[in-house]
Amino acid sequence: MAIKSHFKFSNSQRNGIFLLAILIVVVQCIYAFVDFSSEEIQTDSRQLEGFRKQVDSLKQISAEKNAPKVYLFNPNYITDYRGYTLGMTTEEIDRLLEYRAADQWINSAKQFQEVTQVSDSLLAVLAPLFKFPDWVTQPKPKTNWIDYSKMSDPKSYGSKTFAQKQDLNTATAHDLQKVNGIGVKLSDNIIKYRNKFKGGFISEIQLEDVYGLTPEVIYRVTNDFAVKTPRAFEKIDLNSASKDQLVTIQHIDYEIAHYIIEQRSLREGFKSFDELLLVKKFPVQKFEIIKLYLKLN
């Protein structure tokens, strides 16, 4: 007995199956390529631009963070390797090292070019990176001290002339106590300070070092007293003095003496006493007293 096949179709059945397959393909294509959404998507251009700027900002911050840092430096301490990385030639580096070996200092970009002979283009790149100490580039302001050298002028400082005033180096405690504001204690302080030095005061300005005397009281003292017989001493040449010589001056210790000599080398010698005000840690308040012991040759 023969088994009937279930996969045999008539012509009409085959046509129906073929039509059904075509419909399925057509439906799939329509589903894939036709947009059935009824709402149109709206984009906010302002918000999109804001997001874009935020992304750009984050990129810039990341780039700056990862960029190599450039530090300012003092050109006096450029080494062979540092000079090479900065673009200097061997000859330019050698000129700088030779200059520094002579214990001389560079204190400006212009001087750096004069010493090393670098080109203008390289100097334009390096100069913004130079950092010199503040005490080299910025002078300290003067303080408002009293100019006791004018105390003999009766029009400006009282009615007595220099000739009418009593010698401060021979005045007794009783003489000093006649000044308004000078009592037993202050007169004793003045005489004790005067006796610290063989020969007494050099100038009235030294009264500023006497403990307890205010500028007003000093003003009154100098109306009646002047140093007529200053003690004899030899002034020290500021441009040739050694450290040991400088420390013999009041208010100058070894640290300040070191900075004075260092500044002297930087400036290739002092041209005026006012340049001392550029010295690091210089006791500006005692400038006039220190000046008494110095000369410039």
UniProtKB/TrEMBL annotation:
InterPro entries: Endo/Exo/Phosphatase_dom_1, RuvA_2-like. Gene3D superfamilies: AF1531-like domain, Photosystem II 12 kDa extrinsic protein. Transmembrane segments: none annotated. It holds the Pfam family HHH_3. This is Helix-hairpin-helix domain-containing protein. It comes from Gelidibacter salicanalis.
